[in-house]
C-alpha cells in the first residue's frame, strides 16, 4: 500500500508542471483521475515526434506524454458543457485534492473554481498551477516554460559569455522550470494533506512557475539580493568555485569539480604541476576565482594531453571529483544506473516499454508502478461507474451527447 493510497486526486492539469506533480502523487499510491477533453486530451499527447507505434501500425501518443502521466486514469469529459462540468463537480466532492493549470479565473465560468468547489467540499485541497500566479500585472499572461526560463533569470546565466563563440542566452535542454514547479507543487500538496489529516480542512494553493523559477536561482539570486552582484553567463564555469568546469581532453571532454583546496592540491599533483598549489594566485578558492583565466591557461593544455578515460582513472584514484559528459543513451547503460534501476519496464497498449523510475527511495512505502500512461478516455466508464454510480445506459447517453469520450 502506497503512502497516499487513501488519497484521490482530481487532475485537470495538462502539459508538464501539473502532470509532473500529480505523477509523483500517483507514484506514492494516490488514485489520480486525469480529466481530458474528448478527442483531444493533454496537449503533450501530440508533442512529437517521437511517437509510439501501435500494434495495428497506427501512430500512438507522443513519448513526451509518457514522461509525466503514469499511475493515472484518463477520463474524457468536456467541461465546457454544463453536464460535463457537473460531472467534474461531483468528482470533486469525492476527492481529497484537485489540481488544475488553466489560465487565471477560466474555471470560474464552469463552476470549477475554488470557491464553488470548496462550498460543496470544505476539505478539498485545490491547487492551481499558472505561469505567474493569481495576482500581479502578469496574472493573465500565458506562462510556458521557455518564457519562464527567460523572464525568471535562468537564461541570463546559462550559455557562453558575450563575445565567446555561440555567446547568447540559452535555455536548459529540459523544461526545467516546469519540472521544478512540479516538484514544488507536490511538496505544497503534501503539506496541505498533512494539514487536512489533522484538521479536516482544505485550502487553496496558488503555484506560479515564475515564483518557482526565481526560487530555483538559489545562490545566484542571493548573490544579487544579499551581495549586490548581478551574475553573468560563464558557459560551463562556476561563478564561485574554480576549477569547476568542463575541459577538453585528447578525445572529448571532462568535468573537473574541485570544491576545496585539498582537492586542488591533489589535482595539481596528478597533473604533474605541484607548483600550482604553492602559487599565491591559486592557493585558495577565492584567489583561484580572481585568477580564473590565468589558471585555466595552465590547466587546459595539461588536460588535453590524455584521454577522458585516462584522466578519470588518474583523478578518481587521487580522490579528485571528475566525470564524463554522457549522452542520454549512455546514462541508462551506465553500471550505476543499471544497479539503481533507473529504467523501469511497463506494459502498455503499444507493447512493452521503459520509463524513467521515480528517484524516491522509501523502505516502507516505496513508489509503485501500477498503471502505464493511459490512452485518452481509457478509464471513463470505470470511473463514472465506480465513483458516481452511473449506469452503462447513462454513460452511453452522455457519450452520445459528446459530453464524455
Q: Which regions contain 5 or more consecutive residues with pLDDT less than 50?
A: none
How many beta-strand runs? 13
Question: What structural class do the secondary elements suggest?
Answer: alpha/beta
Profile the largest sheet. 6 strands, parallel
The N- to C-terminal Cα distance equals 31 Å
Helicity range: 25-40%
Order of strands across the main sheet: 5-2-1-6-7-8
Number of domains: 2
Please identify which CATH superfamily of the largest domain we are dealing with: Crotonobetainyl-coa:carnitine coa-transferase, domain 1
**Which range does the strand content fall in?**
15-25%
Shape, per Cα inertia axes = elongated
Overall pLDDT, averaged?
A: 96
Describe the structure.
By secondary structure, this protein is α/β, with parallel strands linked by helices. It folds into two domains: 8-216 and 339-400, Crotonobetainyl-coa:carnitine coa-transferase, domain 1 (Rossmann fold), CATH 3.40.50; 244-326, formyl-coa transferase, domain 3 (2-Layer Sandwich), CATH 3.30.1540. 38% of the residues lie in helices and 16% in strands. The protein is built from 17 helices and 13 strands. The protein has helices spanning 17-27, 63-66, 82-93, 114-120, 145-151, 176-199, 209-216, 218-225, 261-270, 275-278, 285-290, 292-303, 308-317, 328-333, 335-340, 380-388, 392-400, and strands at residues 8-12, 31-36, 51-53, 59-62, 72-76, 97-100, 125-130, 203-208, 244-248, 253-257, 322-323, 343-348, 351-356. The strands form four sheets. A six-stranded parallel beta sheet has the order 5-2-1-6-7-8, sandwiched between helices. It has a three-stranded antiparallel beta sheet with strand order 9-10-11, covered by helices on one side. The longest helix has 24 residues, at 176-199. It is elongated, with a radius of gyration of 25 Å. The relative contact order is 0.14.
